[in-house]
Write a structure and sequence with these properties.
The protein is of the alpha/beta class. It has two domains: 110 residues, Tetrapyrrole methylase, N-terminal domain (Cobalt-precorrin-4 Transmethylase, domain 1); 122 residues, 2-Layer Sandwich (Methyltransferase, Cobalt-precorrin-4 Transmethylase, Domain 2), CATH 3.30.950. The protein has nine helices and ten strands. The strands form two sheets. A five-stranded parallel sheet has the order 3-2-4-1-5, sandwiched between helices. It has a five-stranded mixed sheet with strand order 6-7-10-8-9, with helices on both faces. Helix 2 links the parallel strand 2 and strand 3. Helix 6 packs across helix 7. The longest helix has 13 residues. The protein is elongated and about 55 Å long. It starts with 7 loop residues before the first strand and ends in a 16-residue tail after the last helix.
Amino acid sequence: MTNTRPPVALIGAGPGDPELITRKAARLLQAADVVFHDALIDRGVLALARPGARLVAVGKRGGRASTPQLAIHEQLIRAWRAGLRVARLKGGDPFIFGRGGEECMALRAAGIPYEVVPGVTSGSAAATYAGVPLTYRAMSQSVLFLTGRRARGTDAIDWVAVARAADTLVIYMGVESLPILCAELLRAGRSPSTPALAVEWATINQREVAAPLAEFVGACGHAEIKSPAIIVIGDVVALRDTLAFAPAPTARGVCCAAS
């Protein structure tokens, strides 16, 4: 007998601003009976769920109480098997540092159908809202997305390879390890004058700090940059003052060390 029940929807919520969510994501949210959502989802995005839908927080925050990943898998499976229309709402894009692949694997192992709705990832959105094109002819022909938080049991980051891998580096979850990663990039050969940018709370009350790589840790510390923040390192950051457009309702920060 063919299964006609809707699949579990793994939905990318985008970087924060509710207007940046896709039409398909909004439609699936409005159809869901239960929405399992990350910790940093904006209330405006959650408001897109239909009235009466159950909203379940299953987020993770570094150093704070978090929902174990296996518990998230179990809740998704249990809800679908109970006959509910299930949405899993994830910040940014489900497949970019969102552990969406792990959740798909768990659903597949349980024999449960799923679909994935791409979202605007915070790495590109933060840079764009700051006026930084991640690619720019003659300045940046390559971009590397990486995480500053090493997964347990994985090899140490090869910073020499990272420093040489791309013109522009976009680092997720890098605030806590910022002193280490900046020191390693400098040691690996990145110029001390390389422009660097931190963007806190991308697209919603966005706050930015820019400084040369050698001064970047101090600038971020002085501005008290906290997670969630995206780090962008590369020559294209120098275009920020020329190209920034500060779209409403974002409040663009003004902290910027002299370069």
